[in-house]
Design brief:
2 copies of one chain form a homodimer. Helices cover 33% and strands 23% of the residues of chain A. In chain A, helix 2 packs parallel to helix 10. Chain A has one domain: Rossmann fold (3-Layer(aba) Sandwich), CATH 3.40.50.1820.
């Protein structure tokens, strides 16, 4: 099927959690992605909505599918869920394994413009063009290209937000757990943007949700943001949802920010609120 | 608190998933265990039921708490959930790390009688005496000693079944996912029993659920067994629930066996049916 190789398939909540690998032309390496096919996908006579889920720093496509418990809600709503990996794999660029917040498993869902990263670290185009198109073509009997949403966690929350803002209309719904909201002004983001994009801060604005929302003029969109109040990265100002909320309000883009008392940054937190996020997406994608 | 050291605490579904470590006198080493305190535990003025959960081969106390999603159901029912590790840790016995199905993370919830295992590999007494008593004393303001159940997966399903059958009345409810039902006659069990107990097969009978149920004469008990039909270990006859069911029927012990079409041996399977198991235990423990 379109160069896809099945890595694993496990029944869960009546559907199948699958992992495939494929050769990516954008990233010039072999990549894994996960896809959950809910029970409604069987037979293939109904086209279902899709949600892309983007993981955070240090993750692969495995964390979300084994720890969040999302399959229960995807099965209830009849939604296909796709999860890419978080960076190119196995390309061996000098320095790519030196830190947990840059290089391997830290692709930041952008297209690098600086050497030596620019030829492989193209997660933005990989996600929004190559994988997006691949899902629509390879699973064309199951997925409805007109009803695709996106969500993510931490670095992946940033990825979800910039993907929806940079590609108006391509995703109909968006939500984020503990997203990095203004990477140009937090330590993780400054490190990543300096490394992947260089010193030109005008270029940074093209990959920063807080900057992008200020010039968004696509179809109506509500940003659904979630944040644990006991998240140490929130407290250390890596995430800064308030800055994004202020930017949204300044330009009239609807935004919801749920701050969850006592919750931290981990999948324990995500698993508690993943049902609410699926409800939010389903309301839009199944309207 | 009684020599307990807090390793981690994370909010999930309104309660807290905690991990503690303590020095075990039975095992002569430091052990971790998990405890989920549901939201109903706050304040400490209601005593709640408890379920012990025993993990399978290769696991620690982490797998179940991060992959099964049980916390949603423990929170809904108001049940405390305790999960021990699967073997002594850090005791360094020759050969303890040579295979994944014997030694480290493969304690089989029994008391070894054969050297060199007999001084540390006492998971039976650790679970049913030391940890059981520790939970009741250290969490005495929260747990109700009269309403304790037990469940487990694979090797841990075996552990749950033998614990309830060897200690009549100590656990009021029992269920098992893909349990090793007749270890005396399957490759995993023969290897473990030979190693921990030696060649005397009369001794094996004391740690084999199928043998123990034939002479059970404790309080009324229903065994709730669950099995994925696509589980390769089931197909290879490591698990053999039908043999246990036959033994139960021969002596009139009520038994339920749910065979789940298409499901395998992993946490994807467990997470799909964990809600049913909590419903089963809650019906008994909250009657």
């Amino acid at each position: 099927m379109d160069g896809l190789e099945l890595v694993s398939s496990n029944k869960i909540y009546g559907g199948f959690q699958k992992v495939y690998s494929h050769e990516s032309s954008e990233l010039k390496c072999k990549m894994n992605f996960s896809i959950y096919l809910p029970p409604q996908a069987e037979g293939g006579d109904t086209k279902l909505p899709v949600i892309f889920y983007l993981s955070g720093l240090t993750c692969t496509e495995q964390n979300f599918i084994s720890k969040s418990g999302f399959q229960r809600y995807a099965a209830e709503h009849g939604i296909v869920v796709v999860g890419p990996d978080t960076s190119p794999r196995g390309v061996k660029i000098q320095g790519d394994d030196k830190s947990w917040d840059f290089g391997i498993s830290a692709g930041f869902y952008l297209d690098a413009s600086k050497e030596p990263w620019s030829s492989n670290y193209r997660m933005g185009s990989y996600l929004n063009k190559e994988l997006y198109d691949l899902i629509i073509s390879a699973f064309g009997n199951v997925v409805d290209p007109a009803r695709i949403g996106i969500m993510g966690h931490s670095m992946g929350g940033h990825g979800a937000l910039i993907s929806v803002l940079r590609n108006p209309g391509q995703y109909k719904s968006v939500s984020a757990f503990a997203p990095i909201c203004n990477p140009s002004t937090c330590p993780w983001g400054v490190k990543a943007f300096t490394g992947y994009l260089g010193e030109n801060k005008n270029e940074w604005k093209e990959w920063d949700a807080t900057e992008l929302v200020k010039k968004y003029n696509g179809p109506p969109l509500t940003l659904f943001l979630d944040q644990g109040a006991a998240d140490k990265f929130y407290i250390e100002k890596q995430l800064q949802p308030e800055i994004l909320v202020e930017a949204c309000r300044s330009v009239g883009v609807p935004v919801i920010l749920n701050v969850r008392d006592g919750y931290d940054h981990l999948y324990y937190y995500i698993s508690t609120f993943i049902a609410e996020h699926f409800d939010f997406h389903a309301k839009i994608l199944k309207a």
